[in-house]
Design goal:
alpha+beta, Beta Polymerase, domain 2, four-stranded mixed β-sheet, disordered N terminus
């Protein structure tokens, strides 16, 4: 196989992912449109759906609702980012002995990493990932922290969860 064929396979995979995402968006937008249409029709006869009640609540206190909505989005972004990071850990399991999620807040994710062999080559695997996050400007709002710890100190670490690498 030559380089151009390998490149096409990579692009085909991304194209497939893009198509899947667009299909999900299309499906969700169609469902939302149906909900909006039903809410509008029922409102004409004086009935309120959960959607129209939520919109009414937003109109009563828009600042509070915008803040609530912003927090909800931040939380979802944090969850997505956590899944991406977990996937990266699983992809690079060969370098890892253990990984712990040590702390989480609305905009911060903290992980403690125990490397099988603590050396600069293995650390660079994870520093490269952090650099990609920085270059994507994700760290302006969502901070990701990796802490490398020796295996003999694992018992002293407080963590929320051990991340399974299998």
């Amino acid at each position: 196989m030559n380089d151009s064929q390998a490149l096409d396979i990579k692009n085909d995979g991304k194209l497939g992912q893009l198509k899947a995402i667009l299909y999900l968006l299309q499906t969700n937008l169609e469902e939302f449109k149906d909900e909006v249409d039903a809410s509008y029709a029922l409102l004409k006869i004086g009935e309120k759906t959960p959607l129209s009640k939520e919109l009414e609540k937003t109109l009563e206190n828009p600042v509070k609702e915008i803040f609530h909505f912003s927090n909800k989005i931040d939380s979802q972004v944090n969850q997505i980012l956590d899944k991406i990071i977990r996937g990266y850990f699983k992809k690079n399991y060969f370098a890892l002995e253990k990984v712990f999620k040590t702390r989480e807040s609305l905009n911060d994710l903290h992980y403690s990493i125990v490397l099988k062999e603590d050396n600069s080559k293995n650390r660079d695997i994870f520093f490269e990932f952090l650099n990609k996050i920085d270059l994507a400007n994700i760290s302006q709002k969502h901070n990701v922290y990796f802490q490398f710890i020796p295996s003999q100190l694992v018992d002293r670490i407080k963590f929320n969860e051990e991340i399974k690498l299998e």
